[in-house]
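notes to self, project folder thing:

trying the whole complex as one job this time. last attempt i did each chain seperately and stitching them together was a nightmare. two parts in total, labels are on each line so i dont mix them up again. if this works i'll redo the older ones the same way
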Amino acid sequence: MNLAACSRVAVFLCTALLLAPSVRAADDYVPGPDSKPQEGVPKGEVIKGSYTSGEKSVFPGGYRDYTLYIPQQLDRSKAAPFMVLQDNGGYSAPVAFDNLIHKKEIPALIGIFIGHSRVKALNTNALDRFNRSYEYDGLGGEYARFLIDEFFPMIEAKHGIKLSTNAVDGSIGGASSGAICAFTAAWERPDRFSRVFSSIGTYVGLRGGDEYRVLLRKMEPKPFRIFLQDGSGDLNIYGGDWWMANQEMQRALEWAGYDVKHVWGDGAHNGKHATAVFPDALRWLWRDYPAPIKANPTASRRCRRLPLSMVSGRW
Amino acid sequence: MQTTSIVDGEWEVVSSGHKFTEGPAVNAKGELFFTDIPNSRIHKVNLDGKVSIFAEDTGNANGLKFGPDGRLYACANGKKQIVAYDESGKASVVAEGLESNDLTITQDGKIYVTDPNNKQVWFIAKDGSKKVVDKGLNFPNGVCLSPDQSLLYVCDTRGQFVFSYQIAPDGTLAYKQRYHHLHLVDGSMQSGADGMEVDTEGRLYVTTEMGLQFCDQAGRVNGILAKPQSAWLSNVAFGGPDLKTLYVTCGDKVYKRAAKVKGVLTFNAPIKPQAPRL
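result (full assembly):
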């Protein structure tokens, strides 16, 4: 576009903005039909459970609740694709799954809505040890190891399901600390989690999460794709500025050549916007399934410089 | 929670001219006691600020804590003893044959003692019998209780984390896990975490190389108070009649600062704080 065309577009946009009636208040996000029960759509089974880790667990003595979503269309003869959601789910996920599975926009996947653990107090005059921040905000491979080596085998045995160990079938998501938790699981174990949904993600200095925006640019890209949602009204507190941090994550992911999509709004630190965009995020995350998800699919020019200018191929 | 929500004003010197200060502990009146390890002394600070010698030849006493019996318990590591002083300064042996650095005591008389040289934590029962209840931290140093006294916290001077354990009725420790995540000074692989204390809302205060780091109940550093001087920040306590004076021992001096939060005394009834939400 030449300069003159550019300025014509700018004038048009300004005029359009001035004339446009105010259609919505800030943070006023409304879920669409894919997040509401639709007639004729088979409903998945929702099963509630709880689990307490043993003394040898990475989260010893931790009690947690979970909910499983099992679609009617599930092919039990095969290992199933799945989506883990921290904080016991949200986003009207079972309904969104029902609708999108029915439309064949995502595969018939198992939903694993899992809570953080707490070590229950021995009497009513004491608090439980509250493990949410430790499990979710903490970097490193502990949470992924817990899921893969401890929790998945437990639910498989208890509920007669089989989860796929192929990365293309593994998806994980969450909000706030549950979002950085999902990111960390994929970052540590992209061989098992390749589709990440991140809403109002806590990529700030609570337990070192502020380092990801730097590591993303330096570390050889990993094979996962990620959908980011955040809003300008998000938190700005002692650990950091969520809205800025999410934008920095998006910029770093893009710079490093990741397959990343973002939806920014004007929401606060809540799940409204994420719930409204969840079906779109699912469609984007599961598009072209079951094609493998490759590292550096956009072959970012900058990324080719560092560190991929140093080596080629894989180990 | 920012630093300005925790304290007011600046650090003020409470006592100076010591070799190495440690072991700040507060009695029911809110009076402060502290140790000068190389000089083998325990000092007392009256509510009016007057400093006096409470005990000498303390066996290089390090950590101190008042017990539910009103006595002042001390880690007399030079004598390989845990001793308790009555109000007159007369010492009795509580346990012996153990190395020690710091200690804490529950309202029902359970004593926990860190033994960094042997990388272990001791439990001393009311009858004076002792046993090791944890092994394996690199340098277990500061030790304190959650305000409800259901959890024991032990910091690792040579690591990044404070560990959390659930206290069983028989005094043993269960479900050991890293919990509070501390900031490190660049170039250092260790926090330098030494002394610890909690407030009524369940925040944990940890003296470290970087300063006095305070964590929320979820274990995240919310703020860091700068050290009062460039010296080893060894320990922390809340004192004064309303437990709203924050004391630290740092090198050759003891300092205080007005606090907006309130400390707890472990010989009083446990306090159940509000549950964390995040």
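what i see at first glance: Residues 195 and 235 of chain B are 4 Å apart (CA to CA).
need to look closer tmrw
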